[in-house]
Design brief:
286 residues; mainly alpha; elongated
Length: 286
């Protein structure tokens, strides 16, 4: 028996809030990636790690806020907590690999393609592992073609967002990249959900149980608190606010600012000619 699936139990509230959370995580993560390109080599891993955790937490929070609006009328839904939190770890790990590649190699060519692909696969892996953590009286079945489309959307969007972050063209550029990334993560999520069918195990009775919102809300407290703290770090970092487009560090993504400033060739100064002193001329012979 096919279950009756409803992905919008609260109307447009959950999709909009989920999109905003994806944008927030993307904005913080991409700004941290940009920031890593403006500092010395020793500080770069810390900023990239913070960016990876921010993006991973943002897309994980987006997914499960959207899942608060998901229900199957004929059966209650539970969530396996170890698998649910494992999906958060997978998101942070795989997004981190992609961001570190772009952060050290630059947002162009093979490095961008590799980093974007790994980041996109991390987003998709988080989604489907989180779905595997659902527990209900039925079996989840997916349309292969639609699943493949959702993965392509995730990879393409992640690549575009990392490219935009690597351009280092100021705050508004990063905000635009985060909006694109949020739209892509949300699009990937709902494309993946469109591929879902629920096959129930021989029951037609509507059973009662806790709502998805009541089950998921406690799990979201930690990632939401982390995003808040990451936002505070980014907001109060002076270089993030005062950096201007067109600086030497912004012209070479992936190269620390202090290296860029000191690799240029200094102009050769011409020796200044001393003025002739009176009586210093060599007397001419007649």
């Amino acid at each position: 028996m096919q279950g009756t699936v409803d992905g919008f139990s609260y109307g447009l509230v959950t999709p909009l809030v989920a999109y905003l959370m994806a944008c927030l995580g993307g904005a913080l993560g991409l700004r941290c990636t940009t920031r890593s390109m403006l500092v010395a080599h020793s500080w770069r891993p810390g900023w990239l790690a913070l960016g990876s955790a921010a993006i991973g937490s943002g897309i994980w929070t987006m997914h499960f806020i959207a899942m608060m609006g998901f229900s199957v009328q004929q059966t209650p839904i539970q969530y396996d907590k170890p698998i649910t939190f494992a999906s958060l770890g997978v998101a942070i790990l795989m997004v981190g690999i992609g961001i570190f590649i772009v952060g050290y190699k630059g947002a162009s060519g093979t490095a961008l393609f590799t980093g974007g692909t790994i980041t996109g696969l991390g987003i998709a892996s988080m989604h489907y592992l989180g779905m595997a953590g659902m527990r209900l009286n039925g079996k989840l079945e997916y349309n292969t073609f639609t699943v493949a489309a959702s993965v392509v959307i995730a990879v393409a969007a992640a690549t575009a967002a990392l490219w935009a972050a690597g351009q280092v063209r100021g705050f508004l550029w990063s905000v635009g990249a985060s909006l694109v990334m949020g739209l892509a993560v949300s699009g990937m999520h709902y494309t993946g959900m469109a591929a879902l069918n629920v096959h129930l195990h021989g029951t037609t009775n509507v059973t009662s149980g806790d709502s998805p919102a009541a089950l998921l809300a406690p799990m979201l407290i930690g990632p939401l608190a982390f995003l808040f703290l990451a936002g505070v770090v980014v907001m109060f970092d002076p270089l993030m606010v005062m950096s201007k487009p067109g600086s030497p560090a912004q012209q070479k993504p992936g190269i620390p600012a202090h290296m860029v400033r000191h690799t240029g060739r200094r102009p050769t100064s011409r020796p200044r000619r001393r003025p002739d002193r009176p009586g210093s001329r060599t007397p001419q012979r007649w």
